[in-house]
């Protein structure tokens, strides 16, 4: 598989798709100005243990009856919309013990940021907060990164120091803020992103954000409100 991915910008209600084959599929599915996510159902899912091993962060009780894998890029506008639509419901389900989330932070939109590496730095910052704080602080920081998402192709994006201050606003400790400010987990985030990208392609036949997997299989309708989550939770009683 080529190491060079060409993300295609889409409307705010669609996902980002990577890869030459996926790009051809995408072109064929443009309808009324909206780009819909196509998936290769023949590829099957990936092993649950593999998804757990390469997750950047895991939030929620191991005993939760439902586990999902969420693939995001902090530079992705559609991911921001997904967070705005479903973030609160996901957090509530985590907090009441009915959901466990394995977060996979992808970084293919680095080149859309002014610094050229914002996606990766933000993923590293999230790992700092996830490793050093409780789930409530991480959940707030995760949401805050999307709330403060820089514009694609803009003139600036948050520095590590900016993200450290944002972490402080969410209640992060001095040690965690230092981790964010120094970019201590950036390399770790890059490695995790590469592993997650590979697993996502195996699961869905392509790489795109946002994507949600349940049982290693793509979940449909994630950009249409929280009905997808309601259905998953209802299936588990």
UniProtKB/TrEMBL annotation:
<keyword id="KW-0676">Redox-active center</keyword>
<keyword id="KW-0472">Membrane</keyword>
<keyword id="KW-0732">Signal</keyword>
<comment type="similarity">
    <text>Belongs to the thioredoxin family. DsbA subfamily.</text>
</comment>
<feature type="domain" description="Thioredoxin-like fold">
    <location>
        <begin position="56"/>
        <end position="222"/>
    </location>
</feature>
<keyword id="KW-1015">Disulfide bond</keyword>
<feature type="region of interest" description="Disordered">
    <location>
        <begin position="192"/>
        <end position="218"/>
    </location>
</feature>
<dbReference type="Pfam" id="PF13462">
    <property type="entry name" value="Thioredoxin_4"/>
</dbReference>
<protein>
    <submittedName>
        <fullName>Thioredoxin domain-containing protein</fullName>
    </submittedName>
</protein>
<keyword id="KW-0812">Transmembrane</keyword>
<dbReference type="InterPro" id="IPR012336">
    <property type="entry name" value="Thioredoxin-like_fold"/>
</dbReference>
<feature type="transmembrane region" description="Helical">
    <location>
        <begin position="16"/>
        <end position="36"/>
    </location>
</feature>
<dbReference type="InterPro" id="IPR036249">
    <property type="entry name" value="Thioredoxin-like_sf"/>
</dbReference>
<keyword id="KW-1133">Transmembrane helix</keyword>
<keyword id="KW-0560">Oxidoreductase</keyword>
């Amino acid at each position: 598989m080529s190491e060079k991915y060409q993300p295609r910008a889409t409307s705010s209600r669609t996902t980002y798709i990577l890869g030459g084959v996926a790009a051809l599929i995408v072109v064929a599915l443009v309808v009324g100005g909206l780009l819909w996510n196509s998936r290769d159902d023949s590829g099957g899912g990936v092993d649950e243990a593999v998804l757990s091993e390469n997750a950047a962060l895991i939030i929620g009780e191991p005993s939760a009856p439902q586990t999902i894998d969420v693939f995001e890029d902090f530079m992705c506008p559609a991911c921001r919309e997904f967070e705005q639509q479903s973030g609160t419901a996901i957090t509530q389900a985590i907090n009441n013990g009915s959901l466990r989330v394995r977060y996979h932070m992808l970084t293919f939109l680095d080149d859309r940021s002014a610094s050229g590496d914002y996606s990766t730095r933000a993923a590293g910052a999230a790992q700092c907060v996830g490793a050093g704080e409780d789930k409530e602080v991480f959940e707030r920081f995760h949401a805050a990164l999307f709330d403060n998402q820089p514009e694609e192709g803009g003139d600036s994006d948050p520095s590590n120091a900016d993200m450290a201050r944002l972490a402080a606003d969410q209640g992060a400790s001095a040690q965690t803020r230092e981790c964010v400010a120094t970019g201590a987990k950036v390399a770790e985030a890059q490695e995790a992103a590469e592993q997650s990208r590979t697993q996502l392609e195996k699961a869905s036949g392509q790489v795109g954000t946002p994507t949600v997997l349940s049982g290693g299989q793509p979940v449909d309708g994630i950009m249409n409100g929280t009905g997808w989550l309601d259905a998953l939770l209802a299936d588990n009683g």
